Amino acid sequence: MDTVNPLLVSSASGLKMDVNGGEMRKNPTLICAPLMADSIDKMVTLMANAKATTADLVEIRLDSLKNFNPFEDLNVLIKQSPLPTLFTYRPVWEGGQYDGDEKKRLDVLRLAMELGADYIDVELKVAHEFIKSIGGKKPEKIKVIVSSHNYQSTPSVVELGNLVVKIQSTGADIVKIATTAIDITDVARIFQITVHSQVPIIGLVMGERGLISRILCTKFGGYLTFGTLEGGVVSAPGQPTINDLLNLYNFRQLGPDTKVYGIIGKPVGHSKSPMLYNEAFKSAGFNGVFVHLLVDDLEMFLRTYSSTDFAGFSCTIPHKETAVKCCDEVDPVAKSIGAVNCIIRRQTDGKFFGCNTDYIGAISAIEDGLQAGYNMSSAAGSPLAGKLFVVIGAGGAGKALAYGAKQKGARVVIANRTYERARELADVIGGDALSLDDLARFHPEDGMILANTTSIGMQPNIDQTPMPKDALKYYSLVFDAVYTPKITRLLREAKETGATIVSGLEMFIGQAYEQFERFTGLPAPKEQFRRTMSKY
Hints:
Strand content: 15-25%
Protein name: Bifunctional 3-dehydroquinate dehydratase/shikimate dehydrogenase, chloroplastic
GO biological process, one term: shikimate metabolic process
CATH class of the largest domain: Alpha Beta
Largest sheet: 8 strands, parallel
Pfam family, one: DHquinase_I
Domain Shikimate dehydrogenase substrate binding N-terminal: 263-343
Domain SDH C-terminal: 504-532
């Protein structure tokens, strides 16, 4: 059985086009706006909003309505909807809000079908009985989605395959499976099921670790994805907004041959990398997408997503050091630093190459800050030569900055919460070590440079700072690798004491130049990167 997506037609070029003449798209995956409101009037308003976002259809969650008169209200909703309608009346036992009589609930779905709904969603537990009850009365145009939700985990590929067969056996037109991600590698099993499915299928994985299932369903043949009208108002955990799907991820331009890139971290949701790279990919006409990847175990992630279509990754806290061990080949500089922030999968043999672009971005930004702040000439060698350079943090970014500063002739001091780690790094690069507690009292000279490479002060903990304000007066320049927020408490207080400040945004943009070129083989659009980040 093959259900052609009724909302799209193919153009002569093979690209999909909206039947009402909308933008060209490279995949037939629909965007459905889930609507939850307590009144019919609000539901109608939301429908108009969904149309304005260019969603393809709306899911009307009947279980969110307070007062509901089925015949009258369904008529209004179907007649007034500017988009095709999917009716869902989710019971409490399947994660919804309806806890009334089961027969009445199914009668409402039958009525929606008779009154002209385009889709109805029926839970697997009652689907056999429901589909048998409609017999030959099912209108030609309506599609019955039979759904299964697992709020605990994502089963094995074999179990998922059996579940698809079970759902198909009910007579479903479209199979829907929603599972929960314990780990980002769980999503690979849903991709495997979706891409090999012989029937129209919706396969989504809930939670932040499942986000890629909602974006890359375009690549793996998913029938639809859900996108919300506004952030935070979701009908299931982890749903992105329609605005993000279309404008951040270029959803309608993704297809089976799109290369996947991403930022690997934990936490990772704050990262602006997807905004930076996706805008640049789009401008360059490069067929790639850049996504947030919340990864717990780097080695397992790289082993699971083994296709060369997963082509390259930026690496952030806490995975930069582990990345060195996970790569088949590591650039000598990254090896010296002991941290990798960029992983490229070679297309010829699938092997991983790791390098470090952090130190270039950060050190250049600090040098530029010193030259601008003190009218130094760049011809006279590095302004860091001979300076006392204090690095807070001994992780991947700390190693990169310590290495970069040492290369430029600075005298390096490492300060870290655990003194042993600071000492370890200081010994490797040839510098001194302090515990973070002792740093506030450390001022052998004035005019020092301070670089915070920890996540202290990052959203949501914006009131935190690694250094008391009165200790900042001994520094001529303060750099913070944190760039969310752009001006951290550390930078704000440093500026108040008269120091030159350099935001982590400068490091972020600087390190992205080389990564973009390694990802795409194209020159980095430096001006565009600056424009993109200035909007933020």
